[in-house]
Amino acid sequence: MKDEEWYMLYRDEPIQYGDWTLVFRAQSGIDVSFYTLWETIGYHDDLPLSSEFPIGCYRMDNMERCSRHFRGSVLDDWTNINQVKVSLFSNGSEVVYMIFNGSSSTRDTWYQQTLILESSWTLLRNDSNVVDFNFQGFLWSGNNRRMVICGQYSGCGGDSTYYMALDSTYDACLDTWSLAIPNFPVFLYSPWNRLVTLSSQPTGRSLRSTITQVQRIINLKLG
């Protein structure tokens, strides 16, 4: 049954969770590129939020099904951003999060190791073993790794990561990692407070979604 009270509350305004505004919700395993939608300027699912848009695709829990990504209008109006939060959810629970300093950032520049303010990976901000930290990702040889936080690339066998999103079913290293991806995107994360070696140590999978939210500085006009 739909939670109609919750649904109507957010129908005609940006979706809020406390102090956070929902910017993007990427759903795993639906065979649609989340990165392509992120970059699709002019498309958004809110303001207004259509009554046809699935409730499960803008909720954090897993009470409703979802088969699409959510793109908010904030991505095309990236102004007065204070902080940016990335959360990974599995089975309705947040398993990993990162909060970045979003001031003076753009839609494409906030995702940096030096801008981390807080994270469930407490060692991440100062981990000198991280050599590739970028949103656009690692696209060598047909790979579609996005939002990568990785150590030195070492011919698949030595590749390590805190987090990466695989935005297609192909990756040159899947056999070495003993990883099958029947559907994409897949969000892989380290379950420990360090880089995890993909070929020899298990990674967690965010089975539901990756959520991006922002806090905005509200300008008040007095008098």
From TrEMBL:
This is Uncharacterized protein. It comes from Biomphalaria glabrata (Bloodfluke planorb).
